[in-house]
Amino acid sequence: MKKLLALSVLSILFSFYGFSQDINFGKFLGSINTTKFVGSSVYRGYEKQVEIIEATTTGQKQATTLEIKFNPCPASVDFLTHTQLGKNIVQGQIDVLEKIPYNPAFNRIKYKIYFEVASIVSCNDTRACNGSTATTVTLKPQRICWIYYTYDANGKLLSINSNGIDIRTGQTWAITPPSF
């Protein structure tokens, strides 16, 4: 009976762990110094990247904006410096990870947002959805692409689909992001 109770409690804990939210990480290459935009992430494979609380994109009137919120870290100062100097972000990529449904102890890439030549519309401290203080940055990229990953029931990668837009030309823009 005790084993059955312990097994039940353990399985409930794992099921709650599997329903946790997606994890978002961002890496940015600035026009001032390539060593800037250091985050505080210690997550394996995403060390020193910016761990993002929220990432939203909106499109209107031939413009797309990308808003990110993250806990204050050294990258907060870099974004503020770029805002004050009017410098663009040369490249940026946000990786959105999800829990693997059949093995919640591990994550996989759900989708990526890759962008180039982004001006910083605003950078300020606000409240995040979890109630903590967060740095909120609004970017206006010249090119943006969403890369979606599809998996089968066993977790094998089936396909990678991408779509995006080059806002300067109004043409579609799909790309495989370079590693930086």
What does this structure look like?
It is a single chain. The chain has helices at 2-18, 74-85, and strands at 23-30, 50-60, 63-70, 89-100, 103-127, 133-151, 157-166, 171-172. Residues 1-19 have low confidence and may be disordered. Strand 5 (103-127) and strand 6 form a beta hairpin. Helix content is 16%, strand content 53%. It starts with a helix and ends in an 8-residue tail after the last strand. It is α+β, with helices and mostly antiparallel strands.
Low-pLDDT segments: 1-19
What share of residues are in beta strands? over 45%
What is the string of SSEs from the N terminus onward? Answer: HEEEHEEEEE
C-alpha Rg, in Å?
19 Å
**First-to-last CA distance:** 54 Å
The CATH superfamily bears the name: Hcp1-like
Named at the architecture level, the CATH assignment is Roll
Q: Tally the structural domains.
A: 1
User: Helical content, roughly?
Assistant: 10-25%
- The neighbouring-strand order within the major sheet is 1-2-3-6-5-4
Supply the number of helical segments: 2
* CATH topology term: Pnp Oxidase, Chain A
Major beta-sheet overview: 6 strands, antiparallel, barrel
Q: What is the CATH level 1 assignment?
A: Mainly Beta
User: What's the shape?
Assistant: globular
Quickly give the structural class. Answer: alpha+beta
Please, what is the oligomeric state?
Answer: single chain
Rounded mean pLDDT is: 82
